Amino acid sequence: MLSSSNTAETAAIKENLWQVRKDNLRRSWYKFTGNRLSIVGLIIVITVILLALFAPWVTPYPEHRGAFVDFNNAMQAPSTENLLGTDAVGRDILTRIIFGFRFSLIMGFVVIGLAAPPGIIAGLVAGYFRDTWIDTLIMRITDIFLAVPPLILAMAITAVLPPNVFYAMLAVTLMWWPWYARLVYGISSSLQNEFFVQAAQITGASRAYIIFKEILPNCISAIFTKMTLDLGIVIIIASSLSFVGLGAQPPTPDLGTMVADGAKYMPDQWWMTVCPALAIVIIVLGFNLLGDGLRDMLAVEEV
Amino acid sequence: MNNNILEIRNLCVSYKTYEGRLHVVDDMNLEIRQGEKVGLVGETGCGKTTTMRSILGILPKPAGSIDNGNIIFGDKDLTMLSAKEMQCVRGRDITAIFQNPTAALNPVFTIGQQLKDVIKVQVYRKTGNRISNKAAKERAVQVLKEAALPDPERLLSNYPVQLSGGMKQRVCIALAMVSNAELLIADEPGTALDVTIQDQILRLLMKSVIKRNTATLYIEHSLGVIREWMDRVYVMYAGRTVEVASTTDLFKNPLHPYTRGLLAAVPKLTGGGIALGIPGRVPEYLNPPSGCRFHPRCEYKMDICIKEKPPYFEVGKEHKVACYRSADIERDS
Amino acid sequence: MKLSTFIARRLVLSLGVLLGLSILIFIIARVVPGDPVRLALGARAPQDVVERVSAEMHLDKPYPTQYFIWLKGVVQGDFGTSLYTRRNVSEDIKAFLPATLELALFAGLLMTFFGILLGVLSVQKKNSWVDNIVRMISYLGVVTPAFVFAILFVLLFGYLLSAFPVSGRLAEGITSPPTITGMITIDSLMTGNFKAFFSALTHLFLPAMALSMAGLSQQARIARSSMSDNLQKDYILAHRACGLPERKIMFKYLLKPSLIPTVSILGLDFAALLSNAFLVEMVFNWPGISRYGVNAILTKDLNAVAAVVMILGITFVSINIVVDIIVAYLDPRIRMRRDRTGA
C-alpha cells in the first residue's frame, strides 16, 4: 500500500477531488435545469410527495378517505365546497385523490425497493461470472420471467391469493426484479473486459470488492434512472390491477378503483371517473419527465 | 495565371456549444492547383477536419457555421451555394476519403448496394443518363478492381462487417474514384490502419490520383507520408495555415517556429538525442490567444505578436510564412 | 451465420423458455393457500362433491405427476375443465382468443404504422411545431394507462361526439359471418359481407386506438431518437460526401439502420398490447381472452388462468421470435455474432 507519510499531499488530493465533485454536481444541475420539462417533472414529483406526506393536514375532508357516507351530498358536480365533486356515496373526490397519491407512492416505493436489490445483485453476479454456468442459470431464469409481460404474470399470481393490495404489490414485485437483473447484467458483462476490472483482479481484490466497488458504481446512474421511470410504470400497473378489482379493495382510496367506480356513472357524472384518471396521468407524467431529465443529465457524465 | 482549382481565403469557422462559441478556424488560407498534391499538416484539434467539412459543405448543423471568408472552387464560391447545389458538387467534382473506414460505410447495406447507388447518381449527374443495374454493377466491379481488391464480384454482396480495415478503406477509395472528380480530399486515411497496410493504401491512393491527374488535399498529422508524396505542404496551427512551401523547401528550411518545433520533434535514426517537444499546449478555442495564436509557446515572441496576427511574408519561391520574425529565424538556422 | 441457423437456434431457446414458463405457472397455480376446489365451488358444497371434483382434476396426486398430466394435456391442446363455465377450457379459448387477436393485430398495425410515420415526420421537421406536437402526444401516450385512454375515448367519441360505438364487436341486428378465423373483420371480408365488415371495423376502432396509444408513442419516440442519433454518424457524412441525394439518404440509408431499435421495441410493445388488452376489453365489453382471464382470476378458476397465461406466453414468445428474425435481417451484424439472448 502507498505510504501515508505525506498526509499533506493526500489532504490536497482529497480537497481537489471534493472540488471536482462539486464542479460536476454544479454542471449536472446546470444540464438538468437546462431542460424545462425536467424541472416540470421535478416540481410535479415534489408536489405529489409533499401532498402525500401531509395528506391528513392538507386535504379539505380527511375523514372521507375511508368508509364514509353522506348521501345528501353524493354525486355533486365540482363546486366551491368540493373542488372536484363528490363520489357515489358523498365523499370528496379531491381528498380521496390526494390520499390515493399517498397510496400509489407507497406502492411504488415498496415494490421498487423490494424488487431492485435482488435484481441488481443477480445481474452483477451473472455479469461477473460471464460465460459460466452461473451466468447461464441466472439469465435463463430471468428469460422465463421476461417471456411473459409482467402484468400477466402478476395477475396470475394474484389469482391464487386473495385480492388485496398487499398481494398485488407482492405479485408486481416478483415480476419486477428480472428487469433490473437484465439491465445490470448488460452493463456488468460489458465491463468485464475493461482494464480496470482486470487490474483489480491482478492486484488481488476479492470478488465481492470488484463487484461492489468497481462495477456497481458504473451501473448506479442507469439503475437510478430506471428506478425513477419505474415508479411511474408501477403506478400504472397498480392502478390497472385495481381497476379490474385485483388490487386495492374499497374503501381504500386508490386511484384505479376510483376510476372503475366512477366509470359506472358515465357520462353524466363524468368527474367521478375523469378526475382520478387525470390524477394518474399527472403523477406518472411527473416521474417520467423527471426520469428522462435524469437520464439526459447522467448520460453526459458517462462520456 | 490562375489555374487554382481550390482557393480558400480568410476562412473563419466556429461551432456553437454549451460553453460558448468555439472559434476553430481563423483566417485560413489555402490554394490547390490542378493535379497538384497538397499536404495539410497539423496536430489533432488544429482545425484540419473542420476545414475539410467546410469545403464539402458538411459542417454539423446547427452548431457549425462559416462566419467569414470564401472557398472558391473553379469559378464558384462554395460558401454561397445552396444545399442542393452543394449536393451536386459533392461526389462529382469533389470527393473525400475519411479517417475511419469502419464508420464511413453503412453497416446495414452491402458494399454492392452502396457502390451502385453512388455510381448511378454520379453517372446521372455527369451525363444526364440513368444507367441500368447491370451497368452499375459492372462499373462497381471495375472500380473495385482498380482499388486492387480481390474477387470483386463476391465482394459486392458482402457487408462491411465482413471486411478487414484495409479492405474497407480500399472500398472507400473505390467509392471516391467513381466519378473522376477534380479534387480529392483525404483525411488521414491511414490512421485507423496498421502501418504496413497504411503503406499499401497510400500507394494505391497516390497511384489512382496521379493516373487521373486529380488534385489532392491530403490531411495528415504524420510528417513521413507528407515528405514522400506531396508537392507542396501547408502547416496548420490552431485554425490557421502558418507556413506553406514546396515539400523539399519546407523540410530543408522550415521558418515558422511551430514548423521548426514539429520537425525537431520527429526522432531521427541518425544520432542526436531524445527528440524535443514543443512546450505548452494547444490553445482552447473559447478564448483563443490574441494576435498570433502560437505566441504563448513561442521562443521568438515579440510584443507585436501578441497584439496583431502576422500577415504572410514571402520568403522564397512558393514559400510563405505567417511570422514577424521569419528573417531572424532564417538567419539563426 | 446463415439466417436459417439463427432461426433454428432461437426456436430451440424459446421452447426451453416456454417449458420453464409452464413449470412456473404450474407452481403458481398449485401453491394456493386453501383448497381451490372448495374456493370455486363455494363453502356450502357438500364434501363428497368437492372430493369428486378434486379427483377429477387429479388434485390428490403428487405434484410432479400433476404437472406431467397437465403438461401432456397442454401439448395436446387440453387445458382441463373450467371451474366456472364447466366446459373445456380449450373451447373457451377457441371462442375468445380470436377476438383478442383481432384487437391486438389492429392495434399493432395502428401502432407500428402511425408510430414510425410520426417519428419520421418529427425528425424531418426537427424542432418545428410539428415536432413539438408529436413529442407532446407521444409523451402523454407513454404516461397514460390504457384504461384511461379507453375511458376518455368512450366519453369523447362515444358520448360527446357519438361517432363510434362503445360496446361489443358488431351492431345489433347484423349477423356475424361464418367463423373461418374467428376475426369478424377478416371473415366478413372473405365472405363478401361488407355490412358486417364495416360494422366490425367501427366497433374495433376505439378499443384498438386506446390500446395502441402507448405503443404508438413509444415507436414514435424511438424512431425519432434513433434517426436523430444516426444522423450524426460518419457514414451519413460519407454518403453526403459521395453526393448521394438527401432524399435517398433519409429514406433509405438512414431509415434502415434506424428501424433496428424500433423493431426491437416492437416486440416489447406488442407484449404491452397483449397484457393491457384486458383493460380495454373490460371497458368496451369486448369478448376476448383477456377479459376471460380476468374473470377466471376473480373466480379462482385455476385451470383457465393457467391456460390463459400459457396461451399468452406462447403468443408473446412467437412474436418475439418474429421480431428477432426481422431485426437479424435488418442488421447483418447480429447474425455474425454469437447468439446472446441476454445481451
CATH class of the largest domain in chain A: Mainly Alpha
The separation of the N and C termini of chain C measures 18 Å
Q: How much helix is in the residues of chain A?
A: over 70%
Strand content of chain A: under 5%
Low-confidence sequence ranges of chain A: none
Descriptive overview:
- The complex is a heterotrimer of chains A (303), B (333) and C (343).
- Chain A is an all-alpha fold and 303 residues long.
- Chain A has eleven helices and no strands.
- Chain B has 333 residues and is of the alpha/beta class.
- In chain B, the strands form two sheets. In chain B, strands 6-7-8-3-9-10-12-11 form an eight-stranded mixed β-sheet, sandwiched between helices. Chain B has a four-stranded antiparallel β-sheet with strand order 2-1-4-5, covered by helices on one side.
- Chain B has a domain at 258-332.
- With 343 residues, chain C is mainly α.
- Chain C has helices at 3-30, 36-41, 47-56, 63-76, 89-124, 129-143, 146-160, 184-190, 194-231, 234-241, 246-284, 289-298, 302-330, 332-336.
- Chain C is globular and about 85 Å long.
- The two termini of chain C are 18 Å apart.
- The interface between B and C is medium-sized, with 35 and 25 residues.
What's this, in brief?
With 333 residues, chain B is α/β, with parallel strands linked by helices. Chain B has 13 helices and 12 strands.
Could you name the key traits of this structure?
A: 303 residues; MetI-like fold; 2 domains; 11 helices; B: 333 residues; alpha/beta; 36% helix
Summarize the helices and strands and which ones pair or pack.
The complex is a heterotrimer of chains A (303), B (333) and C (343).
Chain A: H1 7-34, H2 36-53, H3 55-58, H4 93-128, H5 133-147, H6 150-159, H7 165-191, H8 195-202, H9 207-243, H10 255-263, H11 271-301
Chain B: E1 4-16, E2 21-33, E3 37-41, H1 48-56, E4 64-73, E5 76-77, H2 83-89, E6 94-97, H3 101-104, H4 111-127, H5 133-146, H6 152-156, H7 165-177, E7 183-187, H8 195-212, E8 215-220, H9 223-229, E9 232-237, E10 240-246, H10 247-252, H11 257-264, H12 303-307, E11 313-316, E12 319-321, H13 326-332
Parallel strand pairs in B: 3-8, 3-9, 6-7, 7-8
Antiparallel strand pairs in B: 1-2, 1-4, 4-5, 9-10, 10-12, 11-12
Helix pairs in contact in B: 4-5, 5-7, 7-8
Chain C: H1 3-30, H2 36-41, H3 47-56, H4 63-76, H5 89-124, H6 129-143, H7 146-160, H8 184-190, H9 194-231, H10 234-241, H11 246-284, H12 289-298, H13 302-330, H14 332-336
Helix pairs in contact in C: 1-13, 5-6, 5-9, 5-11, 6-9, 7-9, 7-11, 8-9, 9-11, 11-12, 11-13, 12-13
